[in-house]
Design brief:
Elements: E1 2-6, H1 10-21, E2 25-29, H2 32-39, H3 50-60, E3 63-66, H4 69-73, E4 78-81, H5 96-108, E5 114-117, H6 125-135, E6 141-144, H7 154-159, E7 164-167, H8 171-180, E8 188-191, H9 193-224, H10 228-236, H11 257-270, H12 276-298, E9 307-311, H13 326-336, E10 340-344, E11 356-358, H14 362-366, E12 371-374, H15 379-382, H16 386-392, E13 397-400, H17 407-414, E14 420-422, E15 429-430
Helix pairs in contact: 1-3, 9-11, 9-12
This protein binds uridine-5'-diphosphate-xylopyranose.
The site of uridine-5'-diphosphate-xylopyranose has 19 residues, from helix 9.
Protein name: UDP-glucose 6-dehydrogenase
Binding site for substrate: 200, 245-249, 253, 316, 417
GO biological process, one term: UDP-glucuronate biosynthetic process
Length: 437
């Protein structure tokens, strides 16, 4: 099939290379600068496996790039919209990028018969888009086909999803969608558009709620001297609950959870419904970093001028995305307390915010620091020579924001003088001999 994809962010570019890999003829459309980068075979987002697949598709010749709507859609059987739908300050979803696509379609006077919306949109949006296109004389079926891929494992998630959801109103569009996804082995759920739109929000907010639940329990564990890892293991082995997204830590970040949660709260307000579970989810998450900073400061006599090493800048491992990263909240609070922040991240080499020095290695970051906070669970952080890290520090305080250091490593560190290990949802561990500063 001939498919045109508008928007080459995480979802758009991953869909483009994966659908090309499945054998479709794909044209991806975006701004000129992005298109130029992709044409010269350079992936503009960092995602494991993406560059390799992009090179392969470029060599095969069934992936093309275009910055012009009329030529990009000229012979397309389907148009897939994957542009951004950020949340505005008032909590409503900003649909301007989708509206812009519609305007361009109307101006070109040409619209493929199937319009697939992959951008996350509030319930009812696809109905409005279809009415809008029909009103302009463009006879297209609008379907909603949510994307559930995670950054850091996006290609794998696209190719091997748990399920595929088609929110469509006609048998014809369902048949076309099935053709597009032929080759992917996953259960397909066909439902009405409004339900499909809500499935996406309900999935993301449910996952966020699981994380906040684990974080709430972690606070309780700290108060009672229990171990959150054991508690969540015992809870998650119940198949009705499942083990995933119960990892307590510094709170969820990224471009989706907070945005979708706010957007769903607003959708509730619009029809006069409050959604208290979601309000609590957001509140718990908002408190994670401030609580961590309070813990840190309580370990120092005076935070002013202390040096903090931060391991991990992106919102999760295997991505260079810093949108809504807990690191940014930490940085702001550190600036407020005049704490000098030195950070290290395997892929984020610079940060567009003041008040942070990005180090070239974790050891350089650790040198002369008065504490280290581990923010993201990159596998290479677990493998560090932690004895060396601690020996480089001025004051050996480790806050393990993701509970990733093994019990063996922690036991080894406790053999040294003056080490304080502060995990999440577990008792603090200190070496017998504490240095006095
Ligand atoms: C999420 C959804 O998982 C995905 O289905 C949707 O398409 C987009 O939003 P993503 O934001 O890429 O994906 O990352 P995800 O792996 O879900 O993690 C989100 C945040 O939650 C990260 O900050 C992560 O560190 C945090 N998290 C995740 C936890 O704190 N604990 C957990 O147990 C799991």
């Amino acid at each position: 099939m001939q498919i045109t994809i508008i928007g080459t962010g995480y979802v758009g570019i991953v869909a483009a290379v994966c659908l090309a890999k499945l054998g479709h003829n794909v044209t991806a459309m975006d701004r000129e600068s992005v298109i130029q980068s992709l044409q010269s075979n350079k992936a503009h987002v960092w995602e494991p496996g993406l560059q390799e697949l992009l090179t392969e598709c470029n060599e095969e010749g069934n992936l093309h790039f275009d910055a012009d709507m009329a030529s990009a859609t000229a012979n397309a059987d389907a148009l897939l919209i994957a542009v951004g739908t950020p949340t505005r300050a008032d909590g409503h979803t900003d649909l301007s990028q989708i509206e812009n696509v519609l305007e361009q379609l109307k101006q070109s006077g040409n619209c493929p018969p199937l319009v697939i919306v992959k951008s996350t949109v509030p319930v009812g949006t696809c109905d409005e888009l279809e009415a809008n296109l029909h009103g302009a004389g463009l006879r297209a079926d609008v379907v909603f086909n949510p994307e559930f891929l995670r950054q850091g494992s996006a290609i794998n998630d696209f190719m091997y999803p748990d399920r595929i959801v088609f929110g469509c109103q006609s048998r014809h569009s369902e048949i076309m969608l099935r053709q597009i996804y032929q080759g992917i082995d996953a259960p397909i759920q066909v439902c009405d558009r409004r339900s499909a739109e809500l499935i996406k929000y309900a999935s993301n907010t449910f996952l966020a709620m699981k994380i906040s639940f684990a974080n709430m329990m972690a606070d309780l564990c700290e108060g009672y001297g229990a171990d959150i890892r054991q508690v969540m293991k015992g809870v998650g082995t119940d198949r009705r609950i499942g083990p995933h997204f119960l990892q307590a830590g510094v709170g969820y970040g990224g471009s989706c959870f907070s945005k979708d949660l706010q957007s769903l709260l607003t959708s509730g307000k619009v029809i006069g419904r409050s959604l208290p579970l979601l309000e609590a989810t957001a509140q718990i998450n908002d408190q994670r970093i401030p609580q961590l900073v309070v813990k840190l400061i309580s370990l120092w006599e005076n935070p002013n001028g202390k040096r903090l090493g931060v391991l991990g800048i992106s919102f999760k491992p295997n991505t260079n995305d810093v949108r809504d990263a807990p690191f940014l909240t930490l940085l702001k609070l550190c600036q407020h307390h005049r704490i000098d922040v030195h950070a290290y991240d395997p892929v984020v080499q610079q940060v567009a915010f003041e008040g942070v020095t990005v180090a070239d290695s974790p050891y350089e970051m650790a040198a002369h620091s008065d504490a280290i906070i581990l923010m993201t669970e990159w596998p290479q952080f677990v493998e560090l020579d932690w004895v060396r890290m601690v020996q480089l520090m001025r004051q050996s305080i480790l806050l393990d924001g993701r509970n990733v250091l093994s019990d063996e490593v922690v036991a080894q560190l406790m053999e040294l003088d003056g080490v304080t290990y502060v995990p999440v949802g577990r008792p603090v561990e200190q070496s017998v001999e504490q240095r006095v500063y």
